[in-house]
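Subject: Sanity check before I submit

Could someone independently write out the structure tokens for this chain? I want to compare against mine line by line before I put it in a report. The sequence has 421 residues.
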Amino acid sequence: MLGMLLGSESRAEVLSSSDPALAEWFGLAPMTDSGIAVTAKTAMRLAAVYACVHRLSSNMAQLPLHVMRRDGSNVVDGNDHPAHALLSTSPNQWQSSYDWREQAQQVVLTNGNAITRLRRDRRGQLIELDLFEPEHIGEPVRGASGWYYPAYDAQEQRWFALPIYDAAHIKGFGGSRYWGMSPIRYHAETIGLGLAAKRYGSQFFGGGGRPSGILIDKTPNAVGDLGKQHRANLKSAWKEGGIGKGSGRTALLSGDLDYKAITISPEEAQFLDTQKMNRSEIAGLFNVPSHMINDLEKATFSNISEQAIHFVRHSIMPWVVRWEQEINRKVFTEAELRAGYYVKFNLAGLLRGTAKERAEFYHYAITDGWMSRNEVRLLEDKNQKDGLDEMLVSVNASKLIGDKDKKTNDEVKDDPSNSDQ
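---
Independent answer below. Compare away.
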């Protein structure tokens, strides 16, 4: 019955208790070799995973998203389309556009699939975008009337079949053409190692760390109550001296005692190196530059600007293309696509340089004649001014244009066919 509700097929193969597929089947977290159960929620407790997911999600959410329309050779705003307000302002009554996109990107990064229900009225007009919780949506299956997602309606508390054309599905890298792969599950061992190192560090330092030494009591063994009292006095004097509550304390005890120092093992000395390596590996899994999650060990002031551009081109851009293509093919009808409607993320905000860099860019754009001064003012969120729509051309560029026109006129005069005119 559960398989019918979820649209799943029965499995005949025998699965061991350590098989990730068996754990997933029963809703349990697969156990890694490090002894840590890794799920989307437990993985987010690791600082490196949280930083990568937050960095990608927040950057995708802050990008302006607009509906545009191609009108011949021109591109105009498509704010007359019903999807414009939903995509750029408020997709539903609970979320802003930022909240919806941030949560959707977080879900796809941690679970591999982010599915948004496209609610339409009786006329087929889009009225709401509703993101599913990961546990409320399943892998698409084929039914008698076509492909659908087994989905759960939290308000009506029932499972239902959601047609695939009524859902925008952002899939993660890997998996099949129907269902994306969760990077957290795919690399559970790497993340489990980080969680295990974190737990080890908490236990190590929470217990006061490894003792720096051992006290050897050379007092002749006393028997009975005398021996018990001697050991109790020694323990009490040790505690009263504050030893173990902080470094730099010296114990002054009476009796015939010997102190033997304990050195830390090389494995424990490399504890921080293990954490650094794991942090770098996790950044690579999510395709995030290390400096974007505050790992500045190899970053310098000379290359961090280039690394920021690298982040936009190679980390953000693939997700932008995924979002744009999925929204275009699911939100707009075929007639609307033929009419020129499409969505566009504006990456100018992420690529926006310093004031000096923007000034140099605008200077060349204006003097080379491919931007007007009013267009520059719009990019800087300033009002347009009269007389600034004229395109300017530098002296060198105008000289080249003049020479080209002069050469063209000379060729016309030298043309024999024009001798009789």
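---
OP: Matches mine. For the report I'm noting this point. The two ends are 93 Å apart (CA to CA).
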